[in-house]
Write a structure and sequence with these properties.
GO terms for molecular function: acyl-CoA dehydrogenase activity; flavin adenine dinucleotide binding. Keywords: FAD, Flavoprotein, Oxidoreductase. The chain is an alpha+beta fold. The protein is built from twelve helices and eight strands. Helix 5 packs across helix 8, helix 6 packs antiparallel against helix 7 and helix 10 runs antiparallel to helix 11. The longest helix is centred in the C-terminal third of the chain and has 36 residues.
Length: 377
């Protein structure tokens, strides 16, 4: 089987025409702000990739989803990273539906029917803080929940239809607070998008700042959970993190695959070198797929999240070995004749920048291996 054939076949079967559209565009065009990739993804039905077929979606399981993200990442790293954030938000809503009252499925059906894209306003790394603690504030009124706060960077900031965010709200029975997920329509008064991402790498992911000022969210767009505020993961958060780690890792492995693909058919590069790099990359992909095969329709447990973190961090090390060697083997003429090689080599470093950072997770993972519950910091 040809390199990337399996991934591209999966992409074609689930989102017909998308790979052809992306392949016909220069990399520089797809990686620039305002690029056509997001529109092509939407038109191919990408918004509903993870929604079960029974509710109008594509019904992709985790294995198919990571193959789709690798295929997209090999064409446009920015699109793969941006759409991973959409899928992360969607996977969290699907997980909520497992314990909800059915209203969540109405929201998911609306996403599919409208081709709606979700940006993630869930908390990320804060200095001396937890990425599980919501950074937006909420005030409950009779008309809905009034939201305030900001998310930066926020992928799909300029193409989103809905901004998802987690907040703590008072329980309806008056006994403390509970975690809730809110869906904020992008056209709501009080939402502003401003420049934030200054790097040329992954500029097409639209990772700018979204500021929410006194935005009223109707009660029917607020999904309450039974999760209390705290540091220990619950099943819904755990499931969301597993999907995030798998899809984001696959996306960056796709970007590295774009470099290695340029070597596969190059007869000037020794066969041993070509096969060695493909082997390293495929071993990392196989590890991702192994965890994906265990990620079924049920909520994930902490053991699977730990596996996904180990796989993600190992993939970072693989990229650190494979990418510089691929650039070296491609040679100076390839490097100088096009910006593509330098761009891809820079873009793959983004995997190490996504939370949770390996250095911060070392102690929690060590405690988990000693028998304690996992914490995400």
């Amino acid at each position: 089987m040809r390199f990337l054939a399996r991934e591209r076949a999966t992409l074609d079967s689930l989102l017909p025409g998308l790979d052809k559209e992306l392949a016909g565009r220069p990399l520089a065009e797809l990686e620039s702000p305002g690029n056509p990739g997001v529109k092509a993804f939407r038109e191919a039905g990408g918004a509903g990739l993870l929604v079960p077929a029974a509710h109008g979606g594509k019904g992709a399981d985790a294995l198919a989803a990571v193959r789709v993200q690798r295929a997209i990442g090999a064409r446009s790293p920015s699109l793969a990273v941006a759409t991973t954030m959409h899928h992360f938000s969607l996977a969290s809503l699907v997980a909520l539906s497992e314990t909800g009252n059915g209203f969540e499925w109405m929201l998911l059906t609306g996403v599919v029917n409208g081709g709606l894209l979700l940006a993630s306003g869930f908390a990320e790394g804060q200095p001396n803080g937890s990425i599980l603690r919501p950074t937006m504030s909420a005030r409950v009124t009779e008309a809905g929940v009034v939201m305030n706060g900001a998310k930066r960077p926020c992928s799909l900031a300029r193409s989103m239809d809905l901004l998802t965010a987690s907040v703590m709200v008072p329980r309806e029975d008056g006994t403390g607070e509970q975690l809730a997920v809110v869906l904020i329509p992008a056209e709501s008064p009080g939402i502003a998008v401003s420049p934030f991402w200054g790097s040329f790498a992954l500029a097409g992911a639209e990772s700018d700042q979204v500021t929410v000022t006194d935005v009223l969210v109707p009660h029917d767009l607020v999904v309450r959970t039974d999760v209390p505020e705290g540091e220990v993961l619950d099943d819904i958060q755990t499931t969301g993190f597993v999907w995030f780690e798998l899809l984001m890792t696959a996306s960056y492995l796709g970007a590295a695959s774009a470099l290695v693909e340029r070597l596969v058919g190059n007869d000037r590069v020794p066969e041993l070198e070509r096969v060695r790099l493909v082997g390293e990359l495929e071993a990392a992909v196989a590890a991702v797929e192994n965890v994906a095969r265990q990620t079924g329709a049920a909520l994930c447990d902490q053991g699977l999240l730990v596996d996904s973190l180990h796989v993600r961090y190992a993939a970072q090390d693989t990229l650190a070995r494979v990418v510089p060697r691929a650039v070296e083997l491609l040679g100076g003429l390839n490097f100088m004749s096009s910006d593509d090689i330098a761009y891809l080599a820079a873009a793959v470093h983004g995997l190490g920048l996504h939370p949770p950072a390996r250095a911060k997770m070392a102690a929690p993972l060590a405690r988990y291996l000693a028998g304690h519950s996992l914490e995400i910091v």
